[in-house]
Design a protein that fits this description.
The chain has helices at about 15-20, 30-55, 85, 175-180, and strands at about 55-60, 75-80, 95, 110-115, 120-125, 125-130, 130-135, 155, 160-165, 180-185, 185-195, 200-204. The protein is α+β, with helices and mostly antiparallel strands. The protein has one domain: Umud Fragment, subunit A (Ribbon). The strands form two sheets. Strands 1, 2, 3, 4, 9, 10, 11 and 12 form an eight-stranded antiparallel beta sheet that branches. Strands 7-6-5-8 form a four-stranded antiparallel beta sheet, with no helix packed on it. The longest helix is centred in the N-terminal third of the chain and has 25 residues, at about 30-55.
Length: about 200
């Protein structure tokens, strides 16, 4: 048979209309599949949010005046729950503690002032660490001043894997002066920013 195009069998030739008719019709997406996909998306989103809240970040509402004027009732802070899995607490950290039965507040928010192995003493509104006066710029002198110093603290050694915490409102805080040193296990995390109300926004 000749290779000349005019001798090609007519059965092998198709028009555009023939091809359109031969193409398979697109399959319709089942409505049920859409609902399954949305269910999976929502389930994954909720699971991710719960995991973040459980292990990474959590929002806490401040109640009480123990951290005034740094924090006020109604302030909402973000707490990094990973901090103390990566490093030990540091002096000056604002921390959220697990509920302690003898405390009056539901969620305890205090400041770390004493570290393991240090001797903490507090008298006449002055905090001493190993006998050296600690400068505390976060205290409001209109709140913490003689004779409004709150309970004194005789020299006490902070145990291993524990911290000594105090509220910034020294005369109005129930802290390690009463509750004793706080174990690392009782630290929920480090509060690092006030997110609400907008007017109180600040890094901690």
């Amino acid at each position: 048979m000749s290779d000349d195009p005019q001798y090609l069998p007519t059965a092998d030739l198709h028009t555009a209309d023939d091809l359109e008719e031969a193409a398979p019709a697109p399959r319709k997406r089942k409505k049920g599949n859409v609902w399954v996909e949305w269910f999976i998306v929502v389930a994954v989103a909720i699971s991710a949010a719960l995991l973040v809240r459980a292990y990474v970040l959590q929002q806490f509402a401040v109640e009480g005046d123990s951290m005034r004027n740094t924090l006020h009732t109604g302030d909402r802070v973000l707490v990094n729950k990973l901090s103390y899995r990566l490093h030990d607490p540091r002096r000056g950290d604002v921390v959220v503690l697990k509920t302690i039965e003898s405390a009056d507040e539901r969620d305890l928010i205090k400041r770390v002032v004493g570290l393991p192995g240090e001797t903490v003493e507090y008298r006449d509104c002055v905090l001493l660490i190993d006998g050296v006066v600690l400068i505390e710029p976060y205290l409001d002198p209109e709140i913490v001043n003689p004779p409004n110093c709150g309970p004194a603290q005789e020299p006490v050694l902070v145990p291993e894997d524990s911290v000594f915490v105090m509220g910034d409102n020294r005369p109005g805080s129930k802290d390690s002066r009463v509750l004793k040193a706080i174990s690392y296990d009782d630290l929920i995390g480090r509060a690092f920013v006030v997110i609400w109300p907008v007017g109180d926004w600040q890094w901690l």
